[in-house]
Amino acid sequence: MHSAIPLTEKVFWVGVNDHETDLFEALWPLPYGISYNAYLIVDDRTVLVDAVKGHFLDEHVNRIREALPAGRSIDYLVVNHVEPDHTGALRILRELFPSIRVVGNKKTLELLAGFYGAGGDTHVVQDGDVLDLGTHRLTFHLTPMVHWPETMMTFEASTGILFSGDAFGGYGTVDRGLFDDEMDLAFFESETLRYYANIIGRYSQMVQKAIAKVGTLGIKILAPTHGAVWRTQPRVAVDWYDRWSRQETKSAAVVAYGSMYGNTQKMAERVARALVDAGIRTLVHNLSHSHASYVLRDIWTSRALVLASPTYNTGLFPTMDDLVRLLENKLIKDRLLGVVGSYGWTGGAAKALTAFAERSKWRIVEPVVEVRCAAGDQDLERCAQLGRNLAAAVRA
Ligand SMILES: Cc1cc2nc3c(=O)[nH]c(=O)nc-3n(C[C@H](O)[C@H](O)[C@H](O)COP(=O)(O)O)c2cc1C
Ligand SMILES: [Fe+2]
Ligand SMILES: [Fe+2]
């Protein structure tokens, strides 16, 4: 079953569903897979908008062949984004369809030459350039750093389709439904937020610029390179990305801890209990069990965060160290932070967490709880106090 799926009479989804890759970018878990969306426009000139990861070429080509009218080849391949999840198939596509001219901006073509070697026909575009296909008319909008420097979006005027690249995309294959009206949107929002927090979040400012630029185009169908195609409520996906890129948070908290022997865990759980008792929706992650991908997703929309770590070889527990680095790398800002540290002899964890808060300019909510070995009743009461203070700060 290789069916190309029509978006309109002349525009087809010719992407693939990837259930093979365990970790996207060799980092982020894909329990529900991911799709690489590509689109074929059939007109006087035929255009493939984006391609797929190399491993999935066979299925991709079958769908292209199905959608192409007899005797026609591909005239243009628009490369909105060079990352190999969308261009891995390029070399072979060029061999199969020798008439292909690759359309991209100056940076696109530089990067393509770097990955796949120079050669082949190209067509260089600048911001605002137009390509007439007959009935369809493509306009190219440069949107750098969403998610790479060469990234652009392509708008088709007659159908109102915005081919948006990674922007507005999410995890999850589209064999469960391609269009927004065919999907369980609650499930899909969670997987789209996880994709956003993992992949795009660092570039939130550039997402804001991109939304300002393409938000006024009159988008009727939003067609990203991953996840749902939005034909009923494209505004919903734009609103999600708008809120997430403004780092809008909810009155909610995440408690993330590392713990080898349960001492730090006990303190973290005490803080969480106090938050819950105070009516704050709280998610708890043991970092030895929850992958950072999910922790980042939950932190992205929560106003408060509690980080609890034992001291491990003078510093943070390794999984906490990883999380803190990721939080800094993703440029997450303006959260309320509760700090809980434990140690056996000279300590270090609490100090490392407060240093992180200072670097990130996050507000630390008192008390910082630092405990030697196992927490006693007084220590646990301070944990509860931290939870209550955080709840009050979240509400303020
Ligand atoms: C492998 C290991 C390394 C540790 N390194 C340090 C250290 O460098 N400095 C320190 O003060 N405590 C150190 N500790 C002590 C722990 O921080 C302390 O036992 C703490 O209560 C452990 O919390 P947990 O039960 O939540 O794992 C270490 C403990 C272990 C097991
Ligand atoms: Fe990308
Ligand atoms: Fe991508």
UniProtKB/TrEMBL annotation:
InterPro entries: Flavodoxin/NO_synth (IPR008254), Flavoprotein-like_sf (IPR029039), Metallo-B-lactamas (IPR001279), ODP_dom (IPR045761), RibonucZ/Hydroxyglut_hydro (IPR036866), Rubredoxin-O_OxRdtase (IPR016440). Residues 253-391 form the Flavodoxin-like domain. Pfam families: Flavodoxin_1, ODP. GO terms for molecular function: electron transfer activity; FMN binding; metal ion binding; oxidoreductase activity. In the N-terminal section; belongs to the zinc metallo-hydrolase group 3 family. This is FprA family A-type flavoprotein. It comes from Desulfoglaeba alkanexedens ALDC.
